[in-house]
Structure formats: structure tokens, C-alpha cells
Amino acid sequence: MDLHLKGKAALVTASSRGLGKAIAQELAREGCHVMLNGRDSQNLLSAAREIRQLTDSKIATQVGDLTRDEDITALVEKTRSAFGRIDILINNCGGPPGGSFADFDDQQWQSAFELTLLSYIRLIRACLNDLRAAKGRIVNITSSSIRQPIPHLVLSNVFRAGVLGLSKSLADELAPDGVLVNTVAPGRIATDRTHHLDGLKAERLKCSREDVVREACKSIPLGRYGEPNELAQVVAFLVSNVNTYLTGQAIAIDGGLVRAL
Ligand SMILES: NC(=O)c1ccc[n+]([C@@H]2O[C@H](COP(=O)([O-])OP(=O)(O)OC[C@H]3O[C@@H](n4cnc5c(N)ncnc54)[C@H](OP(=O)(O)O)[C@@H]3O)[C@@H](O)[C@H]2O)c1
After folding, report:
1. Fold classified for 9-188+227-253
2. Beta strands, E only, the chain
3. Which atom of ligand 1 lies nearest, measured to the CA of 196?
């Protein structure tokens, strides 16, 4: 299917590794110009190099920390100046630290809020005029925790739900301008983050990481972790012009993990 993405300009945040990078790569493969972002310049440049080797699309990079308002402003300005427009915003971020309620003080709650919810709010605000002008697309990356809280991830359980509320509100508010807003909820996709969280769980349970993965796969109907490109392909459809009537939805990409209706 031709997604008609050729020549569109996409800003994909937190895209030097993992899900963000896979989305950036998929959009570039479909012909989008893509702005990549992350805090570590080496990782960022190597992601850009890798994607440039696979596609002819324009790839730009901007180092920046999504918890800093001035970095977000600079990121959006650089995207606008690199491509002359912003058609697509993919809001992604690093995951908040794992832990239970008693583990976190006010400062840690505040940091998680700034990373996982406020950064999305700021990015949407900064891109809003461009997205309205383009009848653009927003996809907010969250987690399966929007449907079912995950043990030992209370910060995600709380703030991802806020992102879902934001997405639903914006789907209403921006529909008259032709901007479609959707949420994507990954279950267990094989990235550095899942590797890290599985390691922490293995320490807690005093078993091996392989045992943790084997146990986790038992609760996934498809019996395995997803690959980042399996999520990226769904995102590419959501932000494409082939998607004309799907907005305000939360799409679980989890191999059937969450049983909620
Ligand atoms: N993978 C899954 O199965 C899964 C499931 C549910 C939810 N999620 C959520 O989806 C998001 C992406 O997950 P992932 O698995 O791709 O994570 P990952 O492998 O840890 O990659 C995170 C990316 O975010 C960047 N990043 C982290 N903090 C940042 C910040 N403050 N400012 C700018 N960039 C930042 C990292 O680059 P730098 O470190 O260089 O900044 C990296 O490019 C996370 O929020 C995660 O919690 C993932």
C-alpha cells in the first residue's frame, strides 16, 4: 500500500534508539524527511548514519533533553528550518524509572511528569500551528499501562493515563483543523529498555534475565516480544494520508498481552 508519505516532514522525539529510532527509520523508508532527537550525540549521529544508509530521505538531528523547555523549542525550530514544515509529530520519550509507590519522593514524581507528560504537552504546543497548516498527524507513544497498570512501574501507570486523556481531548479539539491524534500502547517490544527492566526484575526475583523473558512470553498470546519495526509499521499507517478516519484511538501493539475489552 502506498502510504503517500513521500516529502512529508516528521519530528520523532527520543529517536536515537529503540522504538523512536524504528519509527524514524520506517517513516524515512516511506519517503518522509525526519528529525531525530536524543540526549547522547554519539548515539544520535550513529542512528542518523544508519538510516541514511537505508534511505534517500533527508535526515536531520538535534541533541536535546525533552525535560528542558528550551531544548524542545530549539528542536521544533530546527525541524521547521530544516524542512520548512512539520506534518507529523511522534511524541516519544525515555521511560520513567521502575519502582513502586513507596519508592518515590516529590522530586521523582515531578521529574517523571516532566519527562512523560509535560514534554508531550510542550511539543504539541510548539508544533501546533505547523500541524494545523498541514492537516497533520500526532502519535503519542505510551505503554500498555494505559489499559492495565504494570507492577513496579507506578510512574508510568500514572502519567501515561494523562497522555491518553490529552490525546482524546486533542482529537476532539483538532478534528475541525483536519489534525488526527492517536495513541500507541506498546506491550513488550524488544529494546534496550525492556532488556534493562527484565534485568532489574531478574535481580529482584533472584533468577536469570532469560527466565524473566520466558515467563513474560507465557502471558503474551503470540508467545514472544514484538520487534520495534512491528510497532513502527502501525505508526506509519496512523500518520499517513491513508488514515483518514481514525483519530482519538489508543492502539495496543502487544501481541494480545492486555485482555481488557
Ligand atoms: N519497549 C517497550 O516494550 C515499551 C513498552 C511500553 C512502553 N514503552 C515506552 O516507550 C518509550 C520508548 O521505549 P524504548 O523501549 O524505545 O526505550 P529505549 O530503548 O530506552 O530508548 C529510549 C530513547 O529515548 C531517548 N531519551 C531518553 N530520555 C530522553 C530525554 N530526556 N530527552 C530526549 N531523549 C531521551 C534515548 O536516547 P538518550 O538516552 O541518548 O537520550 C533513546 O533514544 C519509553 O517511554 C518506554 O517507557 C516501551
Report:
1. Rossmann fold (3.40.50)
2. 9-12, 33-38, 59-63, 88-91, 137-141, 180-186, 250-253
3. 20
Query: 92: buried, middle or exposed (CB in 10 Å: 19+, 13-18, 0-12)?
Result: buried
9: Cβ contacts below 8 Å, ≥ 6 apart? 32, 33, 35, 79, 82, 83, 84, 85, 86, 87, 88
pLDDT along the chain (261 residues), means of 10: 96 98 98 98 98 97 98 98 98 96 98 98 98 98 97 96 98 98 98 95 96 98 98 98 97 97 88
193 C-alpha to center of ligand 1: Å? 7
Residue spans of the domains in the chain: they are: 9-188+227-253, 190-225
Looking at the DSSP assignment, which residues form a beta bridge with residue 189?
226
